[in-house]
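Journal club side-thread
Mid-discussion, someone asked how the predicted structure for our own chain would compare to the paper's figures. Pasting it here so we can look after the session.
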Amino acid sequence: MPFRIVELSSARNPLLQSIRLSAARGRPTDDGLFVIEGPHLLQEISRSTWQLETLLFTHEAFPAWEAYARERRMETVIVPARTFSSLTATENTQGVMALAHPRVWQWRDFHADPALVVVLDGVQDPGNAGTIIRSAEAFGASGVVLLEHSARLSNGKLMRASAGSLFHLPVRDAVPPSEFVSRARESNWNLAALDPSGDVAVSRFSFSGGCALIVGSEGRGVSPDLRACSSSVTIPTSRVESLNAATACSIALYEASCQRR
């Protein structure tokens, strides 16, 4: 595809309206594209198997990215700074944005040997969800599953909190719990549900084989159906009743990584 630059100035342009609505709702565009905001996420997605579709810059930001756009022969849209700022969900994206098709991961992509899958059960806060995805990559997890009623991957805050890890790990969202349980049983994964009042200290649970670490919302924890088929794992604390969901999951992932070394 030949490199071309399109200049758009009207905030009513259909493409810009679609981006604005997508960013505000934290959902893909009608064409299934994710809105990627900021230079760091653009650099990270460039190293991934996601498919970049369109680049957007302000007039001020474009000179620093022109060679990047030309090298990739990407359709590039230039937007006035004031119009650009109306598109974003953040106060400062440094005039850099992209539209991308996410990679569609299959269940077989989660089957590392042995697997360590992180499961978010009703974790609706996108900052927590993104932080967990970042920790999952840092501590060697083989993938992340976001069950129904958890934050969506297309949420801009989740993407920023993941710091680009979202683009490098197998991740699925909006997964029905019954589908996950069925896959876990087929794969013989041991399930560990984080619970402040759990029966087994996280250091005593064996993460050496194929397993899945389940973290629930801070309000209700892991759902009863998942707790019923999991070991109840706790992180001992003093003077506080429980930990933030992302903090607890990160500690458990660190323990798992130590065991699996």
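Post-session note: The first strand starts at residue 5 and ends at 7.
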